[in-house]
Design goal:
With about 375 residues, the protein is of the alpha/beta class. It contains 16 helices and 13 strands.
Length: about 375
Amino acid sequence: MSAKAQSGPLSVAVLLSGREQFSSYFGGALARWTYEIYSRLCDCVDVTVFGFPTRAKDLYQLRHETSGVWRVCDLVARIPLARRHEDTLWLRALSRRLQQFDALHIHNRPQWVAPLRRMGYRGSIVVHLQNDHLAHWPGSALDALAPRLDALVVCSDYLRRTFAAKSPLLNAKSWVIFNGANLQLFHPREEVREPKTIFFVGRFDPEKGVLQLLRAYEKVLDAHPDAKLVIGGSTGFGTHRETSYVVQVRELARSLEQKKRAQIQFTGYLDHEKDLPFWFQKATVFACPSLFQEPFGLVNAEAMACATAVVGANRGGIPEVLGDAGRLVDPEDVVEFAAALSKLLAQPQYCRQLGQAGYERCRKMFDWNVTAVTWMALLRRLRESAA
C-alpha cells in the first residue's frame, strides 16, 4: 500500500456489478449499500464508485465514474459467443485508473479478482458478496481465489457456510458483515399504522413468493374478512413488464376480489427513500415469502426498523435477520403461512410486542452506522497488514 495511504485517507474504488445504476431510484441493494456506508466514512476514506452510466440528477452523492467502453460492452452482451468477454473489456478499460487506488471493493464478482491481478493491480482487494455465487465453485477454484484477495465479506453466516467447508483457505479470509437500515428514514410512526394490513414489497418474480402470499391471504380472509393486502414492487428497478408471472398474480388477485371481496392494492414500483418507509410504517404485518435461499433479506430489517411485525421465510439468511424477533414459516406451506399472519392480526398486543422486539434488534444489529464501523475496522486491518 502506498505511503499516501498510510498518512492520509485510504483511497477505495468500488466496482458495482452488472449494469446496476448508482441511484436510489434505478439502483438496487448494492448501490444502496455503497452509498449508505461510504457516505458515513467520507472523513477517513476517499471513495470513487465505478459503474455503468447514471444520469447526474439520479446519482447518489458520491464520486462516480464510468467509461465510454460501456457501449461496446452493451453490444458484446447481445452476442452469444462474445458475451463472456464483456467483463474483461470493462475491466481492461478501467485498469489504468484503478491502479491509482489503495484498495478495490468488488461487489458480487469474485471472478474479477484474477483478471485484475493479471492486469497488474497490486493493492488490497475486497470481494463483497450478497449472493451464493461461490457455492457453485469447486474447492480448487476457491483455494486459487484465496491468495489473490485480501478479504471476502459476506452479508450472512448462511452465505459463508455455502463455501466454508470446501475451502478453509478462503474461509480464513472471510468476514460476516450484516447489511443495515437507514434509521433516519425507517422508523416507527404509530399514528399512521393501519389495522389488519399485510404488506409485501419485492420483485415480481416467482422466487419472491407473491403467489404463495396471495394463497395464504385467501385463507387469512376466512378468519379476517376485513384484512387488506398491499403488494409493492415491479419486475425491475424503476421499470415494469407484464410478464406471464405478473399476469398470473393479477388474475389470482382479481379472483379473490370477486369471490371474497378481498381488498388488494398494487402500489407499483416504490422509491426506496421517498415512498417505502411510509408503507412499512402503515402496515400491521410485513410478509417476506421468499422461496429461494435469500442471502440476507434487507426488507425484513427495514420493516423491523419501523417496528412492524415480520413473518418471514425460513430460507437463507432471513432467520439470522429475524432471530427471535419475528415469525419464521415455510412459505410453501400455505396453512402455516396463513396461520402466522392470522395470529398477528387477531392479537394486536402480541403483534406490537413482536414489532417492538424487531425494532430493538434492528437498532443493535442492523443500523447502517453499526455496519459502517465494522466496515471501517476491516479497511483499517487491511491498511495495517499492507504497511
